[in-house]
Write a structure and sequence with these properties.
Distance between the termini: 38 Å
Number of helices: 21
Strand order of the largest sheet: 2-3-4-5-6-7-8-9
Shape: globular
Structural class: alpha/beta
Radius of gyration: 25 Å
Strand content: 5-15%
Largest sheet: 8 strands, mixed, barrel
Amino acid sequence: MTSIAIEKPGQRGATEDAQLNASFARQPILNRDGMLCGYDIKVRAPEWTAEMAEAAQAAAHADIEADAEAPAGRAPDPAQLVARAVIHGLLQGAVRSALTGHPAYVDVSREMLFDDAILRLPAERFMLELAPTITVDEALVARIVQLHGRRYRFVLDEVTQPTEAFAKLLPYAEVVKIDFTRASPALLPKLASVLKSAGKLLVASGIDAQADFETAHGLGFDRFQGYFFARAQTSTARRVSAPRHALLNLLQLLSGDPTVAQLEAELKLNPVLVMHLMKLANSSGLAVGHKVTTLREAINATGTNRIARWTQLLLYADGRKVALEDDPLLQLAATRARFMELAIERLPEAGRDEADAAFLTGVFSFVDAVFGGSLESTLNVLTLSRPIQAAILHREGVLGLLLSTVAALERGDWNEIGTLCARLAPLTVEEVAAMGLAAGAWAGVADRSAEGLERIED
């Protein structure tokens, strides 16, 4: 969440009590190899209320006394203030951290484009998306040309078929994003072929099924936006970094209260797990003053709780030598788990046990994408508690509500989030959005401290 105060015209920096708040969520964009290469930013634009209008009008009248040449009673344009609030929000550290080094695709309104505040957005980090409903005239084209000269890149968004506006803007766009859910299947091959021949990078949005991904991939699309990679049918395309039965055996052991000797015996049966644990124990965030050289030292340095979380997330790691921050499924599962943990701590009477249960709920909500088959049978194998299973399978209880909330956040469904927050008081939509960004940042920091994830490589 971010806020921007209403400024008095003619007095830069002057503020009133009224504020505009913008909230943000992110959706992953994958390349042809199935790795993260960007995020689409879903914006919840601030609402211009009657109270804000009154405050703005009062500021305009007050400005007459401060500047005799100021236009009498002219209040600032609400659309421009909203645009400024969105730009200001995109510049905040929370958004930057949640991008984890990847570029952001963000819808820009006409007001945002004509506001010089947009020049504060780093051109190399933001792709500016133009909606099909934007008014295209000479002034807009001239502004796009001007911004293009400053190295800003443009995306034609939500394309379903060629239109007059599409034709006018196409020469200035580097990327075309085609809505796979609404575009005619008969038109897609020709549309993709023509655009590829014109040198455009193609993004297929709304890719939530493996079949759609395969179709788009076959048509030569370069990027894919959607959650097809988190579905069970993709499990055959993934390889985990250690044998699945070894990870499950270790998780079952960790669900009890194992001794160091028991953990040592189990880990010795799995050289890959030992290798990862030694890397984990010697990471900068867990340094104990000297290099850890024995398995027993590694267990003691890391701790069973941390080994458990590391093992849970290792289930999702791609078997290829992929940087953890580029692995979409692991990032999604880790972000959900961290969000659940942060969110439940805002609720009354939530303690450490509830936070651990929330983390488990988030991290195992995608486990069928790795193991395939029935989600229920896999959860039974993991011996998860009934409340956790009920939350994952049926969205029951507080854990189920939180899981539904983070799923809505992944879709950028702000109305659904608002409805769920009404049942999760004192949680607000703004807090949910802020925690989503914080969770994404936590999941994406992959090489560094004991507070987040560690790099997992073969």
